[in-house]
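Workshop exercise sheet. Pairs work together: one partner reads the sequence aloud, the other fills in the structure field after running the prediction. Swap roles for the next sheet.
Pair: D.N. / O.F.
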Amino acid sequence: MSAPVVIDLQAIENLRSLNPDDNDAFIHEILAIFFEDTPQRIAELDASLAAGDAPKFSRAAHSIKGSSANLGAAALRGVAEQLERRSHKEGLAEVATLLADLKLEYVRTQAELQKLFPT
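Structure field:
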């Protein structure tokens, strides 16, 4: 089984089509929000895991899942979805490895998006 695509370029094209004549200003705005918000949500995951707060953990994973999907960050979205589902159904006992995977996927996603949209 192959690894998920880091960035789905069709999703980028879909965003681009919303404002085709703005030289990607809309996408840069979305990226700025994503790069500011996602580390905060990851910090929430860490804090809620440490506190044993499964509902808060699930909400943070859900937030990352949604923002990742909007940007076509397929691999990151997939891990966030697994974290959300597992924490919701089974609690936090078995999420540490997946959380580490999510952090790695965020770094990969960030690097790929910065290659596509250098600042």
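Discussion prompt: DSSP finds five helices and no strands in the chain. What would you look at next?
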